[in-house]
Design brief:
The protein is an alpha/beta fold. It is built from nine helices and twelve strands. The radius of gyration is 18 Å and the shape is globular.
C-alpha cells in the first residue's frame, strides 16, 4: 500500500499547525518524521489517520482517508499514539488482544487466527514476561512496549508510531528501532515520529523534516540532517557524522 499527502493543511482552532505538506510513503521503507517541539509532527500523523480534519488530500492507495470507513482504515494503518494513559486494569494479554478489534465483527469471538496474531505481536515486542501483569501497574517503559505490541497485533500493512522511544531506556530504544526497521524490511510501510536524531539517522531509510508545519527537507538522513538544516530548524550548531554504521550528531550549542 501507499500513503500520499498532497498540500495537506491542518488547523486547530485558529492556529495553522500543518501548512501545505506534501510527501509520499511507500512499503519497505522506515520513514522518520522529525522536527522541533510544536512543529506539527504528531498532528500530521493524526491527520493521516483521519483523527483531525484536514485540507488538501491524504490518500491511502488512492482513497481519501476522510471517506474511508473507520474499520477499514484501522485494518490498513495501525497506530501507536504517544503518551497514552491506561485507565482500565486489564491484563497485558487482554490489552494486546484489543489490537484485533478492527478484524472482529460485533459480538464475535477471537478466532485461532486472531490468537496467532496476538502471540506473534507479544513475541516481536518482547513482552511475554509481562502478559499476566495488570497494564495499569506497568512502568512507563513497559507500557510503551505493550502498546507497541497492541499496534503490531493489528498486522496492518502500514504502521504509524508517534514517539515510540518515549520512556524507554537505551537498550529498549534500540530494540524498538530494530523492530520497526525489520517491519519495513519485511515489506511494511512504517512511519515513526522521532526526536532522537541519531537514532533516526541510524535506523531510518528516509526522513521528513518539518518546521512550523511545513516540510522543509525530505530525503535520506544524510540529505536531511545537514548542519545547515539543523541550524535553520533547531537553532543549533552541530557536528554531523553520518558515514558508517554508527552515525552521530553532536550538539555544540545554540546558533548565534
Amino acid at each position: 500500500m501507499n500513503i500520499r499527502l498532497e498540500q495537506v493543511g491542518v488547523s486547530l482552532g485558529k492556529r495553522h499547525v500543518v501548512r501545505s505538506a506534501s510527501a509520499g510513503f511507500a512499503p519497505g521503507t522506515l520513514t522518520g518524521i522529525v522536527g522541533p517541539n510544536g512543529a506539527g509532527k504528531s498532528t500530521l500523523a493524526r491527520a493521516m489517520l483521519a483523527l483531525v480534519p484536514h485540507s488538501g488530500s491524504i490518500l491511502v492507495d488512492d482513497t481519501e482517508v476522510a471517506t474511508m470507513p473507520r474499520a477499514e482504515l484501522a485494518r490498513r494503518v495501525a497506530y501507536l499514539p504517544q503518551g497514552q494513559t491506561l485507565h482500565w486494569p486489564l491484563t497485558v494479554e487482554r490489552l494486546i488482544e484489543l489490537g484485533r478489534l478492527p478484524h472482529l465483527a460485533p459480538m464475535s469471538r477471537i478466532s485461532d487466527a486472531d490468537t496467532a496474531a496476538i502471540e506473534r505481536a507479544i513475541t516481536r515486542a518482547d513482552v511475554a514476561d509481562l502478559r499476566d501483569r495488570v497494564a495499569t501497574e506497568l512502568s512507563g517503559g513497559e507500557r510503551a512496549r505493550v502498546l507497541l505490541a497492541r499496534a503490531l497485533a493489528v498486522e496492518a500493512p502500514a504502521l504509524i508510531a508517534d514517539e515510540p522511544l518515549a520512556s524507554l531506556d537505551p537498550g529498549h530504544q534500540i530494540d524498538v528501532m530494530e523492530l520497526l526497521q525489520s517491519e519495513a524490511r519485511a515489506g511494511g510501510l512504517v512511519i515513526a515520529v522521532l526526536h532522537d536524531l541519531t537514532m533516526a539517522a541510524r535506523y531510518c531509510d528516509r526522513l521528513v523534516l518539518i518546521d512550523s508545519g511545513t516540510v522543509v527537507a525530505d530525503g535520506t538522513p544524510a540529505e536531511v540532517l545537514t548542519p545547515a538544516n539543523l541550524k535553520s530548524v533547531y537553532g543549533i550548531e552541530a557536528k554531523v557524522e553520518l558515514s558508517g554504521d554508527w552515525p552521530t550528531i553532536t550538539t555544540l550549542g545554540r546558533s548565534r
